[in-house]
Amino acid sequence: MAKRTTPPSASDDQVRALLERYHCPVPFHAVRTRFLGNIASPDMQGSPMKMVEALWGGELPTFESIDEANELIGALVMGLWNRLTRHQERSAPFRLTRLDVPATHNGMATLARLRREEMEGFVEGLFGDKESLDLPERAHKALGTLAEIRAMLEASQVLAEDATKPAPPGEIAVTLGHFRELTRIAEHEMHEVVLSCTRARRQMLAALPANRPVLH
User: Fold this and answer.
1) What is the pLDDT of residue 6?
2) What CA–CA distance (Å, rounded) separates 87 from 42?
3) What pLDDT, on a 0 to 100 scale, did the predictor assign at position 55?
4) What's the chain's Rg over C-alpha atoms?
5) Rounded CA gap, 64 and 69, in Å?
6) Per-residue pLDDT tens over the stretch 32-49
7) Cα 42 from Cα 35, distance rounded (Å)
8) Reported confidence tier of residue 1, pLDDT bands at 50, 70, 90
9) Which of 38, 57, 139, 188 is placed for a possible disulfide with 193 were both Cys, Cβ 3.0 to 4.6 Å?
10) What's the DSSP call for residue 88?
């Protein structure tokens, strides 16, 4: 019997290494938030495997053996996905990626891009291939706040990448401080989306009609 090379409890570092090995076009920080959004999604047709395939545009990468396929899928689904399911509890809020950056234009652009990609990944996972979803009111409100934060981050990234508009380190340090506050708000709103959508999905499952069983 073939031995699994990556256990179901694959660490974030192991998952990141596998994504790099198979040239995943989605960065690890965005993979985390995509999975989180899909875990909470009220779309009953979604599945972990569909979300994994979507990372490579809808098809898994090419493997040289079944062991390699099991290694990647096990790390992503049995490892990362399962770890993220705990954030459906109020006592386990999700945390965005922490990154220390210098008080420079490049540092500000890097952090703004990372946060923007995380939030875009969360929405991508939540909606999947759907253009619209019937979301709880609290989730709808939280998504509006996240959209505003994303817009501010995008504007900051554009400004930071514009070499014609230099800013002193002091001003950049203040902006990075604002980023920390935006991170806290974004984490709170993402958690509210997850909690409200999880409750709504559980209520939908509880209300599903059951057919009368055939007794023999």
Assistant:
1) 44
2) 16
3) 97
4) 20
5) 8
6) 999 999 999 988 777 899
7) 13
8) very low
9) 139
10) G
The model's pTM is: 0.88
d(CA 28, CA 30): 5
| Residue 174 CB partners (closer than 8 Å, separation 6+) | none
Cβ(75)–Cβ(170) below 8 Å: no
- Report which of 136, 123, 131 is spatially closest to residue 42, judged by C-alpha positions: 136
* Total residues found in the chain within this entry: 216
Residue type, 21: R
CA angle 50/8/71 to nearest 5° reads 65
Q: How many CB atoms lie within 10 A of CB 72?
A: 22
Side chain identity at residue 191, one-letter code:
H
* Whole-number Cα distances in Å, 208 to 130, 197, 213: 21, 17, 15
Which residue, 74, 92, 196, 52, is CA-closest to 134? 196
- What is the residue whose two structure tokens read 């599903």? 208
Residue type at position 91: S
Q: What's the sign of the alpha-carbon dihedral 49, 45, 56, 60? A: positive
Q: Give the rounded percent of residues in the chain with a pLDDT score beyond 90.
A: 78
